[in-house]
Specification:
alpha+beta, Nuclear Transport Factor 2, Chain: A, five-stranded mixed β-sheet, about 20% strand, 7 strands, about 190 residues, signal
């Protein structure tokens, strides 16, 4: 019984000590000759503030955020020109490596090396590509089975035979190639 009483008294004292330590507010120094270190002047360095739970939280310094590179209009036109000319290898400088290559309804191929796209792209050998696919049609495709594979930024074209290619663009490169037709994309 003596052990329980000693333990209970120690736990109670610890709880009281913890409760009281949070009650005392900051104490101002009695005189100007305090030995405390003066605070630093404002600078461009990130500041550290304490959160409600006592954890330190760093506030980043104001720095300009670089905008992600984009595939510009000239590069997008070069992609369509390469399609029309049947020179799929000419698209390679605009491809991420690897690129997500999907042939709709077959689920071929997934991530492939940029160097493999020309060999895998027999369906891109169609001729008379018109670009871009109208936004309303792209929105309808996004509501279909393959919607998750059609990002907001695309280079798209439709061939005379109905083949549609949608190049997904991110960070200035083509990161995905989705090939199919309107029937498959809206299913």
């Amino acid at each position: 019984m003596k052990t329980t009483t000693t333990f209970g008294a120690a736990a109670g004292a610890l709880a009281l000590l913890l409760a009281l330590s949070g009650c005392a507010g900051p104490v101002a120094p009695d005189d100007a000759s305090s030995s405390e270190t003066p605070t630093a002047a404002a600078s461009d360095e990130p500041t550290v503030e304490e959160t409600d739970d006592g954890a330190a939280e760093e506030e980043p310094a104001d720095e300009p955020v670089a905008e992600a590179p984009a595939l510009d209009a000239t590069e997008r036109a070069a992609v369509i020109a390469a399609l029309n000319a049947g020179r799929i290898d000419d698209i390679r400088p605009y491809l991420a490596d690897p690129v997500n290559y999907i042939l709709a309804a077959s689920e071929c191929c997934g991530l492939i090396a940029a160097s493999e796209v020309a060999g895998a792209s027999g369906y891109l050998s169609a001729s008379s590509w018109s670009s871009p696919v109208p936004d309303a049609q792209l929105d309808a495709f996004r509501a279909g089975w393959y919607g998750d594979l059609i990002p907001a930024d695309v280079v798209s074209a439709q061939a005379a035979d109905g083949t549609i290619v949608i190049f997904g663009v991110a960070d200035g490169l083509i990161t995905s190639i989705l090939i199919g037709d309107a029937v498959v994309f809206t299913s």
